[in-house]
Amino acid sequence: MGKRPQLKNIRRLVIKVGTRVLTGEDNLILRPRIDHLASQVGQLMERGITVVLVSSGAVGAGLGEMGLRSYPRLIPNRQALASIGQVQLMKIWEHAFANYGKLVGQVLVTAGDFQNRKSYVNLQNTFESLFRLGVVPVVNENDSVAVRELRYGDNDALSAQVAGIVDAPLLVVLTDTDGVYTANPRNDPEAKRISVVDYITPELTRATKGKGSEVSIGGMRTKILAAGLVTQAGKYCAIASGADCDLVSLLEGKDLGTLFLPRADGLKRRKHWIAFTSRSRGKLLVDEGARSALTRKGSSLLSSGIREIVGRFETGDVVEIACGEEQPAFAKGVTSYSAEDLERIKGLHSSRIEEVLGHGGPGEVVHKDNLVLINTEQ
Ligand code: GLU
Question: Which residues form the PUA domain (predicted)?
Answer without folding.
Answer: 282-366
